[in-house]
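Thread: Modeling a multi-component assembly for a lab meeting

Hi all, long-time lurker, first post. My supervisor asked me to bring a structural picture of a complex we are working on to next week's group meeting, and I have zero experience with this. I have the sequence lines for every component (1183 residues in total). Could someone generate the structure of the whole assembly? Inputs are pasted exactly as I received them:
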Amino acid sequence: MRFGAWELSVERAEGASPARVAVGALVAVALALLLASALFWTPEAGPWAAYRIAFGYAFANPSGLGATVHRAAYLLLCTLAFLVPLRGGLWNIGLPGQVYAGALAAFGVAFWAGAREAAAPGPWLLLMPLAAALAGSAVGALVGLLRAKLDLNEILVTMMLNSVLFWLVADFIKEGGALMSATAEGESFTLPQDFRPPLLLGLPPTAFLALAASVASDFVFSRTAAGYRVRTYGLNPQAARYAGIDPLRVSVGVFVAGGAFAGLAGYHYFTAVPGLYKIPTNYGYYGDLSFYGMICALIARGSAVGAVPMALMFAGLSVGGRFAQGALRLPFGVDYAILGLLMTTFVLSHLVDRYGFRWRRISPPRAARPQPEEAR
Amino acid sequence: MTREQHSAQATARPPVLRARGITKAFPGVLALDGVDLEVEEAEVHAVLGQNGAGKTTLMNVLFGLVQPDAGEVYLRGRRVRFRSPHDALAHGIGMVHQTRKLVAAHTVLENLVLGHPRARGLLDLHAARRELRSLCQRYGVHVDLDARVWQLPEGEKQWVEILKALYAGARILILDEPTSALTPPEVQVLLRALRNLVEEHGVTVLLVTHKLPVIRAVARTVTVLRAGRAVARLPVSEASDQELVQLMVGQEVALPGLPTDTPRGGVLLEVEDLCAYNDKGQLSLRGVSFSAHEGEIVGVAGVTGNGQDELAQVLAGLRPAASGRVRLAGRDITHLRPLDRWRLGMGYVPADRSEVATVAAFSLVDNVGLNYHFDPEICRRGLLDRGRLERLTRRILATFRVKAPHPYVQARHLSGGNLQKLVVGRVLSRQPRVVVAHLPTQGLDVEAATFVRGRLLEAKSRGAAVVLISEDLDEVFAVSDRVGALYEGRFVALVPRHQTDPETVGAWMAGLAGRDR
Amino acid sequence: MSELLVRSLEASTVFLLAALGELVNQRSGVLNVGVEGLMLFGGTAAFVVAKSSASYALGLGAGVAVGALLGGVHGVFSIRLRGDQVISGMGLWVLSFGLTTYLGSPHTGPLGLPPFPTFAGLSPFVHAGVLLVVAVWFVLSRTSLGLAIRSAGENPAAAAASGVNVPAVRYLCVVFGGTLAGLAGAAYTLSYNPVWNYNFLMGWGFVSLALVFFSMWNPWILLGGSVLFGAMWQLSLNPEYVLPGVLSRYVWRTVPFLVTVVTLTVISTPWFRTRWGLAKPQALGVPYSD
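Re: Modeling a multi-component assembly
Sure thing. I ran the full set together rather than chain by chain. Output:
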């Protein structure tokens, strides 16, 4: 639209400012919650009762708060598992699979150390998380390798591996599988006391690790050459090649790191969180929860520290949502419904900061100042 | 002005195509500002102008690809409004774009049929083949209808496009820079055919170009565009070259005299029988040998697609050599990785500045990092020294006259010329001993192009060996000490500039002069 | 044994329908990695509506409509707004996964209708699938609409310069793709396995996506691939037909997914690429703007 020498237009505004990204993230979350409130509408309770109950349980109830924090650490590790490859332009939707791999490896070590019969203290406490991280990394390395060497679509490969690992877990904990509990069908044996990591302030060490790793991740991406190379590859693989950046090292590197975080997430949730200490029958539910990590990373736009409050909030939502579901007799899957809506509003917010209104003076074409998108 | 009136009076017939007051603004830029154009039946009408003068936008308006903000178009005296190319085609206007608009994976026949007004519902390829055969016969054109387009040489692809417009029933043909990708002999064939179309078949041709010889050869009338305005319309026979250039540029352009003679030193780059495959797995570099000396610019002319990409990429280490050797200052670097080459003093300016040489979403500082992330000055124990990188960027922006508000602006906001200055500045700031520059001035305006060439000459006088791969013969002759041409993956010849002339090299580019000479 | 054959063909049909829609999508240049989501949503809608109305026809209509609608949403995002097609596709998948879990869970369990009618001993979806392959092949290779679709996927700028309305062609194809994905979901929940469960597909959509790559964008190869995968899928559920007693049934369940990865790997090797060429549409996944 033109007004004399001025014009108003809707254009793609590439590259949003950090403030705009933060506002976009908040708007996306708020909008998702607003949309979800329509789903939870019950005639007796009204739209906000569900949130009151959910957040009340998640953040004000002692047992609820504990569950929230444990889950937040899990989600944060999953966030990192998705975020690191994303900075390299790669989609790691293999989070559940890598979580299962981590859990299997940790329980494998415990089994090998004889945890099913007798409990003997040993180096297992360190070996278990290590094995979990390695197992996740191994799955990730395969994906990164196939991507870099043969240009295989990483979304397809990670998704296929999710199903493979899902059934492998079933094989180990069902119908007489090696890790099956002696007393209950369809779940793993419960870890004896000596195989459970010590708690600090009521939290397993993995929770602190997740926080530290978030800070480290932001530092690596902004200050180190390695982080710079990953970012370059993520934004423009051709330019990265020109700059002498090895695609193989980047894609294997980010998937190994991402896989390690997801493996640790599996370790954290199944072996380090009080109250569980086993792979339960409904392990698939926990695996799918890891997709919240994908949302956290996407909405935080690659900032791991920015994802911390996000992870805490989504953990509260999913823990509290499950509680509210029981209290208000809502259908199963409140937490997943919110997950789906969050993804939608994220996609929308992604658009909002790519388009914007521009108001400016029309200048003749030969103006002596830089003109955007001209003469490529 | 008087001349315009004069020519208007001389016009006996009414114009077949007339545009009045065409105005078009793009965000931030007024591309066309009240342009008038009058084209007579069965003439070649040239539209002359520099890059960015609005030529292509005007043609896109006439073809319905762009909707003007103001102004009218009249066809044979009747007002027309084209909402899409479809409308233009239905009115007998066809266009051949500067960039090829053909589906490379499809056959020639499929391309010709695509979008044809009568092609509705079922595809009748047999009937189309018959019609096209007779059409080819009438215009004396030979094109293999069953070949895949990607297999054809550029000249033939151009013919497919012209044929396509004629097949769709075009009587007015818009040709946007038709000679830019052709070799000199292909240009001659094209111009002859255009004359034939106009004289024998009564077709009207609207020819967009910035090349005076082309206009001289075929056009009867010329309209000159400058900065979005039509500044003159005059018969070609009445205008001198001098006058046309002045109209086009708007002022006297004095190109600075370029120093080219520096005493030549020892050999820095040696290439021996180099072969390489392209992305399709074909051997497209077939045994290239040459050397570049200290303080020398080797100009490699050639039409795109004759192995230039592969040569540049193999030298930079981005493509493996199938066989042969590359030595830098005596050291074999054939199998070294790109970074090791950079460290040894190789500098590479790739052809594609916005997709390969820079990251659009990165700040200028981060873009400078592309050539420095491995440099011990910037990267210590794995950590980037951002302060140093910023100071370095500021220095490059100042020395290479990059117009940018600040070093943290995103590269996507820079114009092509400024972006290229940044790339060249970044590469040369490393003081490379060997510079491979591929199409370093493509698409730049005269000022930026001259500046970039000047910097290459400066690098040479510093003692660097420069390999300049370019399609622009004038450029190659302006700066090179030795000139060669690539044809089908081989060097046709490589001789001192003084011993040859552009016509000869033009023939080499077309593969006319044998290697045996 | 013939029971196994019938079930295999029905499984093949679910793969085939979803993949055929995605194939047309991709031939026009639009990638939709969220096929699984469209199938989940279409399947759930079909199941819920059929269950509540006790009508297969209404259920089928609901599934197809939901699929078409979501395909259209993907179209708006990737054609009109020129967004990143992977983000949009993943968004649709997670949205569908999340919402169907919530909306479908009250209906968990069997459909509770008389079995889906059969035609010549097979579910009519099987016949529909084969007919659709013929139709898609014919349209793509023998009509000018097909030429327009293929050109839009190879070089949209060239198509537009020839007067093809590229956005319109692409919308048509994404909505068609969504419709078939919805149909595939309905074929699953109404006929193949009429029991609703949380995340009942568990990767069928992604396998279908892989099948499109295997097919080299050719509907006939896609038909063959779908039949093979359907058979393999059914065998992985009933390994006793092949190797009774060897390995646990859970390990067998991993086979189709592993085979998918291995096949993807094989067709991506340079050896294969140079011999078979890559029929991949050049402009696949690239937003088009004129």
